[in-house]
Amino acid sequence: MTDRLPDRLEAAVLHRIVIVGGGAAGLELATWLGDRFGRRGRARVTLVECARVHLWKPLLHAVAAGSLDASEHELDYLAQAHWHGFRYRFGEMIGLDRESKEVRLAATFDDEGRPITPERTIPYDTLVIAIGSITNDFGTPGVTQHAVPLETPVQAARFNRRVVNACIRAHAQEEPVRPGQLHIAIVGAGATGTELAAELHRTTREVVAYGLDRIDPERDIRILLIEAAGRILPGLPERISTATRRLLEDLGIQIRTGTPVAEITAEGVRLANGEFIASELVVWAAGVKAPDVLKNLDGLEVNRINQLVVHQTLQTTRDPDIFALGDCAACPRPGESTPVPPRAQAAHQQAAHMLKQIERRLRGEPLRPYVYRDFGSLVSLGQYSTVGNLMGFVIGRSILIEGLFARLMYRSLEALHERALHGTVRTGLGLLTRALSRRTGPQVKLH
Ligand SMILES: Cc1cc2nc3c(=O)[nH]c(=O)nc-3n(C[C@H](O)[C@H](O)[C@H](O)COP(=O)(O)OP(=O)(O)OC[C@H]3O[C@@H](n4cnc5c(N)ncnc54)[C@H](O)[C@@H]3O)c2cc1C
Description:
Elements: H1 5-13, E1 15-20, H2 26-38, E2 43-49, E3 53-54, H3 60-65, E4 75-76, H4 77-84, E5 87-90, E6 93-97, E7 102-105, E8 108-109, E9 115-117, E10 120-123, E11 126-129, E12 134-135, H5 143-146, E13 148-149, H6 153-172, E14 183-187, H7 191-209, H8 217-220, E15 222-226, H9 238-251, E16 254-256, E17 261-264, E18 268-271, E19 276-278, E20 281-284, E21 288-289, E22 308-309, E23 315-316, E24 319-324, E25 329-330, H10 344-363, E26 376-381, E27 385-392, E28 397-402, H11 403-422, H12 424-440
Parallel strand pairs: 1-2, 1-11, 2-5, 11-24, 13-20, 14-15, 14-20, 15-16, 22-25
Antiparallel strand pairs: 3-4, 6-7, 7-10, 8-9, 12-21, 17-18, 18-19, 23-24, 26-27, 27-28
Helix pairs in contact: 2-10, 11-12
The site of flavin-adenine dinucleotide (FAD) has 33 residues, from β2, α3, α7 and α10.
């Protein structure tokens, strides 16, 4: 099945821009393009996305810990498309035909297995692929079966339910807490794992404080952060890593660095040195790769972690009509050995650059190279603190920041994303509404 006839007639006059993946990069781009071209009938903008609602991924650790209610931050793709002049097509990209310029989507089904949409194709003149990244388990046995990844809101919410259930179970049982029970091992001490450890420390204590008085958090709940590299936050400057480690250890969070994981079992984590750590819950947050579908996308070039290799113009190396951005793209940085890092700020910058590229493309002008600007990195340790570094472009080096200022800067990254989707007024109203509802409800998700 392919798009209907009226769509084809419309396409005869309008340039068809198809964006696959409505995450940090893709949804901002679809919204801007819809406002600028779709609404005014200057191009036809289509977003293909395999989820029904959008949640900004850096919030997932807070959903997993229970400190954030996902429903307050979720955005319905169908509604966003209606408000901003683009078309939303629900489905997962499973293939591509570059000759006929069509993206192939899998059929979709509801929870009872009834079909929703058939397998179909979406034609394009310009294709932008922005399907993000998934967890990389590096082939470690047992990860798929026994560890929870944090890739989607559904996985994050499921993990949160498992944490709350574990507390209720331990409270209700006759016998004392078993070895490994109420222990949470987080594999990977990058920003995600580290932020999750700090949030979980607070929220598990809050859940217990709601009357689960047979659990003693200091004695029974154990949070362990396991990292293969020599220090936590290996991608960030060493002083941030040192400051964060001190703070986490003061809270009683245990940290093991330089310890690769060999296997995950139903009972816990086996380290490469043979040691076994019993753990009721294991989260896998160690490394990312791009989705496997990119490996065989009609001959487009990929690197060893499946990212589409692009030029600095964000065009894929083997097809100038296909662009890639965000985590799924390997975009070169002049003078650097590694590509642009998989971060929300890179996704945001590339979406803004891509908007201009499409404007130039439609005007028949030459495209310009994208240059990554690193504004620094921030790590939120929940209510305990926020630490990070900001790039001081004037003084030419990064500055360590901590506390309230760092927290405000951290929040501003999410506000930037929301502003791109809703504009300044709605973003301000949303922040206010959520702040008010937090004052009246529990500070932690209890179900
Ligand atoms: C828990 C967590 C915490 C993070 N914290 C931070 C942080 O604090 N700071 C920071 O800078 N970065 C952080 N990141 C990284 C940041 O979220 C990503 O760099 C950013 O979201 C990348 O944007 P993207 O648009 O490339 O991909 P995504 O935001 O992942 O969006 C990809 C979209 O594509 C869709 N999709 C996937 N496959 C298909 C398909 N085949 N067909 C159709 N649609 C598809 C997905 O459903 C998704 O909506 C964090 C990531 C995680 C997981």
